[in-house]
Specification:
The complex is a heterodimer. Helices cover 31% and strands 30% of the residues of chain A. By secondary structure, chain A is an alpha+beta fold. Chain B has one domain (3-223): Rossmann fold (3-Layer(aba) Sandwich). Chain B has 6 helices and 11 strands. Chain B has a 9-stranded mixed β-sheet, with helices on both faces. In chain B, strands 5-8 form a two-stranded antiparallel sheet. In chain B, α1 packs across α6 (210-223). The longest helix of chain B is centred in the last third of the chain and has 14 residues, at 210-223. The model of chain B has no long low-confidence stretch (mean pLDDT 97). The chains are: A alpha+beta, B alpha/beta. Chains A and B meet through α1 and α2 of A and loops of B.
């Protein structure tokens, strides 16, 4: 089984990388980009039967720093 | 005073830190590899150095914080052993949960590498006893992820409890409330982004950092 973990900065946490991307898009002439937030996508190839709780624990213990980041788990069949 | 310097793959300030500790304490620190599960018996001070542990993979300090040796460091800190984290060492200590908050990418996106002015906020700790509160000192910084972040309640608590050791006296990286270094609630763990170990000899330009190590040696010798 596979899962995808999306790690994103919490709202209110400054994302200078997102800001730089926004400026670059603006520089390329794409108007109307109001905000950009950059995050990470982590793909996990897991043993069948790995529980949602185990993946949550992976997120809390390593994949995300919950002081500054949120995570979202998406199961991929 | 017996000290230990933790060495991760990618640490690059470990030897500078060892030189500074030996210069001030007269004793060579033990260099402890990240795979070790125990610290040398009788270690008084654990120093977590700067660098790019594990290539800054995932987040700065994230992989190092989960290494075997950091379990031993956390256990020792809980028993009152002193821990000093500098630069990447500060990032590792926040990732380990030994210090509150996190270090984000610098607000200006640039790697900052220069001498900066710092204000000593707390001169009561073992780390800062040789400084005067309100004094300005100059330490070098060299980091990309030094933008200190914590929620407002945590920041208020740190301020209220006198746990902000140093503040930047100039704009450096966007840190919340200009925080450059924080102390844990028990007072035995300090993390800071600037590098005191790089200003311990006259040839370094100033010796403002030397007093941190002198104060630590004095406090820890008095405890022994």
């Amino acid at each position: 089984m596979k899962a995808r973990v999306f790690v994103t900065l919490k709202s209110g946490v400054l994302d200078p990388q997102g800001k730089a991307i926004q400026h670059a898009l603006d520089g390329l002439g794409f108007s109307g980009v109001n905000d950009v937030r950059a995050g990470k996508l982590i793909e996990l190839d897991l043993a069948d039967g790995t529980s949602q709780e185990q993946i949550e624990e992976m997120c809390r213990k390593l994949l995300a720093n919950t002081v500054i980041e949120n995570y979202k788990i998406e199961a991929v069949s | 005073m017996k000290s230990a310097v933790i060495v991760f793959p990618g640490s690059n300030c470990d030897r500078d830190l060892a030189v500074a500790l030996e210069l001030v304490s007269g004793v060579k620190p033990a260099m402890v590899w990240h795979r070790e599960t125990e610290l040398p018996e009788g270690t008084d001070l654990i120093a977590v150095p700067g660098g790019f542990s594990y290539g800054d993979y995932l987040r700065s300090g994230a992989m190092a914080a989960r290494s075997p040796v950091m379990q031993a460091v956390a256990a020792a800190a809980a028993k009152g052993t002193y821990v000093l984290g500098i630069c990447n060492g500060f990032q590792v200590l926040t990732e380990t949960g030994l210090l509150p908050g996190a270090l984000l990418r610098n607000a200006g996106m640039h790697f900052v590498c220069r001498h900066v002015a710092l204000t000593v906020e707390n001169s009561q700790s073992a780390f800062t006893s040789r400084y005067a509160a309100g004094e300005t000192v100059h330490f070098p910084v060299a980091h990309h992820d030094g933008n200190y972040f914590a929620d407002a309640a945590t920041l208020d608590r740190l301020e209220g409890e006198g746990r902000i050791a140093f503040r930047y006296a100039e704009a450096v990286n966007g840190s919340a409330r200009n925080i450059a270094g924080v102390i844990n609630d028990a007072g035995n763990v300090l993390g800071l982004m600037p590098h005191p170990e790089r200003v311990v000899e006259k040839a370094h330009g100033n010796i403002d950092g030397r007093r941190m190590f002198e104060g630590l040696v004095e406090s820890l010798m008095a405890r022994a």
